[in-house]
Design brief:
Blueprint: H1 2-11, H2 22-42, H3 45-65, E1 70-73, H4 91-106, H5 113-136, H6 143-151, H7 160-171, H8 180-188, H9 198-214, E2 224-230, E3 237-243, E4 246-252, H10 260-269, H11 274-287, E5 296-298, H12 302-318, H13 323-336, H14 343-356, H15 358-368, H16 374-383, H17 389-402, H18 407-421, H19 430-440, H20 447-452
Parallel strand pairs: 2-4
Antiparallel strand pairs: 1-5, 3-4
The protein binds zinc ion.
Zinc ion binds near residues 268, 308 and 311.
Length: about 450
């Protein structure tokens, strides 16, 4: 809008052919003035900030009812709802508010880049608000439609034969007899961290991830996290970002924890994973640019695709190539009091197993679409994702609670990897990779932008 008005002014007033009558000239300037005042009052930062406040208020209102919706909020208390919670979920009025706000944001289309970026980002987040409101009210759509609206993408589909043939290719690499999955489990069982060593091993892995991250990013002074161990959760780890550069990282100890999880969960939740992502957003967008919308992080939204994808990709940025296995062998296994025999083969198989993990998306897609039942989901998870029985059961409870969220981990990681590496941030160019990755963690990138790469 600004650009149009300025272009119009540049054409006429200073031009020698400008020969309107005094009255016409007056009307011309009056109309320019009105256009300018209208545009500057409607498309300035203050106006967009007001819509951002509405966005936060609306998200927090949904969170009054849907306890899983708000993942983090560290913005002003004044935006928290003071209204008394209704006795029933106000689905229709919330949907109407989402729709109204989406319409208001539309007026920022075509404005300057940073306004448009913010408005577009909020609009896409609001699509997810609508879908989540409907899900919370028991209104479901097919898996792909749900993931598109909640997380902005549809994950690729693979037939069972794809996982079957991939699994068979890996079969010859494992010693012993029995199924591929059972032989993998026999190998993995050598690397279970004893309960009493879990804290030391996790703290050491996280400290290493932090040291490596700090070598590339100047993290905010005073940043810190609290590490806690919890039980009875459907997830294996969780980062609760509290604002002011502080997180609570929780590790679930319900199940046996294998050695690779110390780096994988530790780094994913902390450095350069969720803790760093949230801190960089708080520092660069909320504090430096006063973008209040970023202080509210709705779990079921496109932002989670970026969060989970980057937290997973960050592990390979921090421990590239064989550095994970080397660190496990030289530091973590001795700390855990475990023998290192077979660790190289184990890590090789873990890498291969990573290629199979899209099978969990298929299991979730089948279960949510009603195409398969729980026993079949368990079979998929054990046969193709090589999970043991207790991990598979836990994974089913995760799928039931978080639904299509599962795609954020693997498909999100794939999209983030493509985005960074197609711009030159490959393993062979680590400085460039850290730089591009840091930029991704500091801006309002949408899944659509990742997919353009
Ligand atoms: Zn995560």
């Amino acid at each position: 809008m600004h650009k149009l008005v300025c272009g119009y002014l540049n054409i006429f007033p200073l031009n020698s052919h400008f020969n309107f009558s005094p009255m016409k000239r007056f009307l011309f300037f009056l109309s320019c003035f009105l256009i300018l005042s209208c545009s500057s009052s409607k498309h300035n930062k203050e106006e967009l900030d007001k819509l951002a406040e509405k966005y936060v208020r609306l998200g927090l209102s949904i969170g009054q009812y849907d306890a899983d919706f708000v993942d983090a909020y560290y913005g002003p208390d004044s935006l928290k709802s003071t209204a008394v919670k209704a006795t029933s979920f106000p689905k229709d009025s919330l949907l109407q508010s989402v729709n109204d706000l989406q319409n208001e944001l539309k007026s920022f289309t075509g404005t300057n880049d940073s306004f448009q970026q913010r408005a577009n980002w909020m609009s896409q987040q609001l699509v997810a608000f609508s879908r989540r409101i409907k899900i919370f009210s028991g209104e479901y759509r097919p898996f792909d439609e749900e993931s598109k609206e909640l997380f902005g993408v549809v994950a690729p589909s693979h037939a069972e034969s794809y996982f079957d043939s991939l699994s068979k290719q890996l079969d010859g690499l494992l010693p012993g007899s029995g199924t591929t999955a059972s032989r993998f489990q026999q190998l993995a069982n050598h690397f279970i961290i004893p309960k009493e060593k879990i804290d030391t091993v996790f703290k050491t892995a996280i400290a290493e991830a932090r040291k490596r991250t700090l070598a590339h990013y100047p993290l905010p002074a005073g940043e810190n996290f609290t590490l806690e161990y919890v039980t009875n959760k459907s997830w294996s780890g969780y980062n609760w970002y509290k604002g002011n550069f502080h997180s609570i990282v929780q590790i679930n100890t319900d199940l046996q924890i294998f050695i690779e999880r110390a780096i994988d969960i530790g780094s994913h939740e902390s450095y350069p994973g969720h803790h760093v992502y949230n801190m960089l957003l708080e520092k660069n967008l909320y504090r430096d640019k006063e973008q209040v919308e970023i202080s509210f992080y709705p779990l079921f939204s496109p932002q989670s695709l970026i969060a989970e994808g980057s937290a997973n990709y960050g592990i390979e940025v921090t421990f590239p190539g064989d550095e994970k296995v080397r660190f496990a062998k030289e530091v973590l296994l001795p700390l855990a009091g475990l023998d290192t025999t077979g660790i190289s083969l184990y890590y090789k198989m873990l890498y291969m197993k990573g290629q199979l993990n899209f099978a969990r998306n298929e299991a979730a897609r089948g279960l949510l679409n009603g195409a398969i039942q729980e026993p079949e989901v368990l079979r998929w998870l054990m046969q193709y994702c090589w999970m043991n029985e207790e991990t598979a059961a836990k994974s089913v409870s995760f799928i039931k609670k978080y639904r299509s969220y599962v795609i954020n981990y693997n498909y999100g990681q794939q999209l983030v990897r493509n985005y960074i590496e197609s711009a030159g941030g490959t393993e062979n160019a680590p400085a460039k990779r850290w730089e591009l990755f840091g930029k991704l963690l500091s801006t309002q990138v949408t899944p659509q932008e990742l997919q353009k790469k």
